[in-house]
Amino acid sequence: EILPSGEWPENFSMLNFEDLSLHFAPTLFKAEAQPSTLLADVMSGLRFSAAQDDLLEAIEHCFDEVSGVPVLDEERKCIGVVSRKDRDKATNGLKSPVSEVMSSPAITLSADKTVSDAAVIMLKKKIHRIPIVNDSNAVIG
Prior knowledge:
By secondary structure, the chain is of the alpha+beta class. It has helices at residues 17-28, 39-42, 56-59, 84-88, 98-101, 115-125, and strands at 68-72, 78-83, 109-110, 132-133. It has a domain at 37-133: CBS-domain (Roll). The longest helix has 12 residues, at 17-28. The N and C termini lie far apart (44 Å). The mean pLDDT is 84. Keywords: CBS domain. It comes from Selaginella moellendorffii. InterPro entries: CBS_dom, CBS_dom_sf, Diverse_CBS-Domain.
């Protein structure tokens, strides 16, 4: 029988999500980002953004520092996210418009949600980043 590291006295079929989350929490969460920590306390500010009609070459420099860039409309609302992986799938390389490769619609959260809320959504939706929005749905982080 193969078991993950740690003591597991019962059969896996008897475990529930809470058991697994308690066991793996020290591995999954950084000390400053415990599950109950608010996203406002751990998010980074908005450093880069793109418009859907931008060419990938206009935002290429962003990927030197971040792995994904939110795509904003005229009202600064998030309509999608473009990642390095999305960029690599572009049919015309860096001459492709952001709208061709971005993941849309964007999945966003407010700053008053917790790290745990974000982790659950990221696992369920199989995404790697979540833009944080204010009450007006404008991206803030």
